Amino acid sequence: MEHARAATSEDVDDILRLSLALREELEPMRGGRLWRDREAPPEPSRDRYAALIHADAASLVVGTIDGSVVGFGLVELEELRSGAMLGVMTELFVEDGARSVGVGEAIANHLVAYCDERHCVGVDALALPGHRATKNFFEESGFTARALTMHRPHQDPQTNTRSIDG
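Above: the chain sequence. Below: its structure as tokens.
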């Protein structure tokens, strides 16, 4: 049965493995290299995830099937200029073979509940333009687009090639 729970120090190696798989999946997609260089959290490390387990302004969660860790999610709290708090889901990933069975939903619900308990004005999550499954997942979970980032890659006139993510 699928389940989501707060991560513990025993989960750090699984979270690190899944974080690396997340990057491997997203980087080749449209917008992936720029995501890696701008929006992605710092390079995955055991120390970072171990610290996030105990962070006051974050929730690190694992998703399991029959007790085996097959996914993880991270939401971090951001204070807005108004003083209100916004939850920012910076990482959410489920192994390919464990998708579409409710693990991602369980993780997302756990993270949203954390934000609700802290009276956040909302929760943001990012989906790359080429990752239709992620967009659909978030929409089915009640998320809607509140902004679209438009991007025009630089094109070198001498070589007629585009910069990253073009």
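The chain has one domain: 2-162.
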